[in-house]
Automatic annotation (TrEMBL):
Lineage per the UniProt record: Bacteria, Bacillati, Actinomycetota, Actinomycetes, Pseudonocardiales
Name of protein: Aromatic ring-hydroxylating dioxygenase subunit alpha
The entry's keywords: 2Fe-2S, Dioxygenase, Iron, Iron-sulfur, Metal-binding, Oxidoreductase
Keyword Iron-sulfur (UniProt): yes
Ranges of residues in domain Rieske: 32-141
Superkingdom as given in the UniProt entry: Bacteria
Any matching Pfam family: Ring_hydroxyl_A
Single GO MF descriptor: iron ion binding
InterPro entries: Rieske_2Fe-2S, Rieske_2Fe-2S_sf, Ring_hydroxy_dOase_asu_C_dom, Rng_hydr_dOase-A
Required cofactor names: Fe cation
Length: 370
């Protein structure tokens, strides 16, 4: 590693609506996008709507128990079918405009005077289906006609960081229960959030609680990018909690060698997973505008921890503080992205050089779009 500096992306990449539109089209609408926790939709008729790129996507539990995803658009005259963020319908989705009605599997099942319209094929005019895959207890959706390989893009990110996909098994993420969910409405471009997650140069400055628990983070060479080996808890630390006090029992299937360690995985483009011995912290980003990103963070615990009503607040508090510290920093940068001082971007110090790889990846995906 040399002592040289390399440049960041120019400021306009964080403010320009045309670049954001290109990112929506070529990144969020083409890649696998982690949308919804399956357990949030336990029963047939439960649904949730999420923003994926420029589209509203409706994810619903159908009668046979499977999850389906559709574009949230009525095929008649294009009314938005569900305006609520989440809810339950009894048997079907009915458009509030002219009452076209769609089964939970998307098929058009009724419309006023449909019998007098023999040309309306009920499958053809069913809801437009979106690819969906379930993994780690989440529904991942892809708007592309032909989705990229889930194995390469999603599993690959885990293998790159943990050495193998099996290394995740001990955490049993799909079987854990959401003990707490906090949604952060961050007034910053999604890339500022990714870049921040990728470096720990800031850890000593803004994360006093985290660096207490994970002392190696104070050196700046850790966080998402470097902790494939697992960051070791400090010697006096009992658990991944706000004051380093006792956490819960280690997750049942977790190997001993992963006890007292913290691992982090980034799955491009919008997921960050942090693994600690007794819980998993799972972030999903929803980029809404060049300067606004919704981040939904789930704290996942063993079923019995949540069912028995044990107090998760001390472990939630640690990463909640980290999130607030990080998102404050991102919000501090966002307005300055439009400054002439940042027209040609800033610099990456050696411990941040790997962020340059993320920048090239973004530029490559956008192709000639900018
Ligand atoms: Fe939905 Fe007419 S727009 S029924
Ligand atoms: Fe941070």
């Amino acid at each position: 590693m040399t002592g040289s500096l390399i440049s960041t992306l120019p400021g306009r990449y964080y403010t320009d609506p045309a670049i954001f539109a290109a990112e929506q089209e070529r990144i969020f609408e083409e890649m696998w996008f982690c949308a919804v926790r399956g357990a949030d939709l336990p029963n047939p008729g439960d649904f949730r709507t999420v923003q994926v790129g420029r589209e509203s996507v409706l994810v619903a539990r159908s009668r046979d128990g499977s999850l389906n995803a559709f574009l949230n658009v009525c095929r008649h005259r294009g009314a938005r079918l569900c305006v609520e963020e989440a809810g339950t319908v009894k048997r079907a989705f009915q458009c509030p405009y002219h009452a076209w009605t769609y089964a939970l599997d998307g098929k058009l099942i009724a419309a006023p005077n449909l019998t007098s319209m023999p040309d309306v094929d009920r499958v053809e005019y069913g809801l437009s289906r979106v690819h969906l895959r379930e993994w780690l207890g989440y529904a991942w959706v892809c708007l592309a006609d032909t989705p990229p390989s889930f194995e390469t893009d999603v599993f690959g990110a885990v293998v790159e960081r943990l050495g193998s996909l099996d290394a995740l098994d001990g955490y049993d993420v799909g079987e854990l229960t959401v003990g707490r969910r906090i949604a952060y409405d961050v007034k910053a471009n999604w890339k500022l959030i990714v870049e921040n997650f990728m470096e720990c140069y800031h850890c000593a400055t803004i994360h006093p609680e985290l660096t207490e628990v994970l002392p190696e983070f104070a050196d700046g060479y850790a966080a998402q990018y470097y902790v494939g080996h697992g960051a070791e808890f400090g010697s006096g630390i009992k658990g991944f909690t706000v004051d380093g006090g006792e956490g819960f029992e280690k997750l049942a299937a977790l190997e001993d060698e992963r006890d007292r360690k913290y691992y982090a995985i980034t799955v491009r483009p919008q997921v960050f997973v942090n693994l600690v011995p007794d819980h998993v912290i799972f972030h999903r980003m929803f980029p809404l505008a060049p300067d606004r990103t919704l981040v939904e963070c789930d704290w996942l615990y063993a079923k019995d921890v949540v069912a028995s009503g044990r107090d998760v607040s001390r472990s939630v508090e640690l990463f909640h503080r980290v999130n607030e510290q990080d998102f404050d920093a991102c919000e501090r940068c966002q307005p300055a992205m439009a400054s002439r001082a940042y027209a040609r971007g800033g610099v990456l110090v050696p411990s941040e050089h790997h962020i340059g790889g993320f920048h090239s990846w973004v530029v490559d995906r956008l192709g000639s779009a900018d």
